[in-house]
């Protein structure tokens, strides 16, 4: 079972748009040092949509070599084309990863039946466990609880990153899914409550900048310690909110540059740098989270 605090890791870049491998190394060590259970490489936050797949493989290889088994590593393998997702998965099978994060097919709005067929095809190609990823606000399609329940019976589909932020959806998933199926929040603002109500962890944007706090919050929630989980989470709520003041990962990249972990907040077009008017907002959120600047 996937369980605990996972980070949807950004891909740092230089001002010229190249991957900043020195910055990447610092970010990985920062996460491991503060107890993060796993790294998601080349998900939405990693800018997979604008990084060629050949380059994604190079980044993944660098992370795996550096991690050397110290935490889990999962690779994003999603596409709105089933054939492309299957091909990506086959190529990713050669890497020593712990699993895949597979987003719902975006833009073309498949039916629930179409998504079942899509995920079954990806799972059949995957040599490692598959986590589903439901994020309707990004993809334009919602993977319903009953559909997830059907997919949870597929041998190597082992969990879901559920980003609706709905506790009703969590309860539906708990009723529909097979025993042992991992339920991970994909919504930082509601992750504490998600885990306190029986979820198993989070795949988080906030963890990029506050891994120690997120680890403490999730561990307290997993232990059923509501008071500690809510207290820690209250310090992080401004980050949960304001790291989405512009499209993810624009604010997170600015925050990490401000913290000194990366040299640039460059993001590949059509994403741009954080607007100056929002910089003070992010700085205040960092201060509220007691992050040293």
Automatic annotation (TrEMBL):
Residues annotated to bind pyruvate: 45, 203
Pathway it works in: Amino-acid biosynthesis; L-lysine biosynthesis via DAP pathway; (S)-tetrahydrodipicolinate from L-aspartate: step 3/4
Broadest EC class assigned to this enzyme: lyase
GO cellular component terms attached to this protein's record: cytosol
Family of this protein: Belongs to the DapA family.
Keywords: Amino-acid biosynthesis, Cytoplasm, Diaminopimelate biosynthesis, Lyase, Lysine biosynthesis, Schiff base
Parts forming coiled coils: none
UniProt source species: Rheinheimera riviphila
Source superkingdom: Bacteria
Positions marked as site (L-lysine inhibitor binding): 49, 80, 84, 106
One Pfam family from the record: DHDPS
The protein's Enzyme Commission number: 4.3.3.7
UniProt subcellular location: Cytoplasm
Swiss-Prot/TrEMBL GO biological process terms: diaminopimelate biosynthetic process; lysine biosynthetic process via diaminopimelate
SMART domains in the cross-refs: DHDPS
A GO term, aspect molecular function: 4-hydroxy-tetrahydrodipicolinate synthase activity
Protein encoded by which gene: dapA
Official protein name in the record: 4-hydroxy-tetrahydrodipicolinate synthase
Record: active site: 133 (proton donor/acceptor), 161 (schiff-base intermediate with substrate)
Main location: cytoplasm
Known partners and oligomeric status: Homotetramer; dimer of dimers.
General function of this protein: Catalyzes the condensation of (S)-aspartate-beta-semialdehyde [(S)-ASA] and pyruvate to 4-hydroxy-tetrahydrodipicolinate (HTPA).
Catalytic activity: L-aspartate 4-semialdehyde + pyruvate = (2S,4S)-4-hydroxy-2,3,4,5-tetrahydrodipicolinate + H2O + H(+)
Site (Part of a proton relay during catalysis) location in chain: 44, 107
């Amino acid at each position: 079972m996937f369980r605990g605090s996972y980070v949807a890791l950004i891909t740092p870049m230089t001002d010229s748009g190249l991957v900043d491998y020195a910055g990447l190394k610092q970010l990985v060590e920062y996460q491991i040092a503060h107890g993060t259970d796993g790294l998601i490489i080349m998900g939405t936050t990693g800018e997979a949509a604008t990084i060629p797949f050949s380059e994604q493989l190079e980044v993944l290889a660098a992370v795996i070599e550096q991690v050397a088994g110290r935490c889990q590593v999962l690779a994003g393998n999603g596409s709105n084309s089933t054939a492309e997702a299957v091909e990506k998965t086959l190529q990713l099978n050669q890497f020593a990863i712990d699993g895949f994060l597979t987003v719902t097919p975006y833009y073309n709005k498949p039916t629930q039946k179409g998504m079942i067929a899509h995920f079954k095809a990806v799972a059949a190609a995957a040599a490692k466990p598959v986590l589903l990823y439901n994020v309707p606000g990004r993809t334009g399609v919602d993977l319903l609880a009953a559909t997830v329940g059907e997919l949870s019976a597929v041998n190597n589909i082992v969990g879901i990153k559920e980003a609706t932020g709905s506790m009703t959806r969590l309860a539906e998933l708990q009723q529909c899914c097979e025993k042992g199926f991992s339920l991970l929040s994909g919504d930082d603002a509601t992750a504490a409550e998600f885990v306190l109500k029986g979820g198993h962890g989070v795949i988080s944007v906030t963890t990029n900048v506050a891994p120690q706090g997120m680890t403490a919050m999730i561990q307290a929630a997993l232990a059923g310690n509501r008071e500690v989980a809510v207290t820690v989470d209250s310090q992080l709520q401004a980050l949960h909110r304001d790291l989405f003041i512009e499209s993810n990962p624009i604010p997170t990249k600015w925050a990490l540059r401000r913290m000194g972990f990366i040299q640039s907040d460059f993001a590949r077009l059509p994403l741009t740098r954080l607007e100056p008017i929002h910089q003070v907002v992010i700085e205040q959120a960092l201060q509220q989270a007691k992050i040293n600047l």
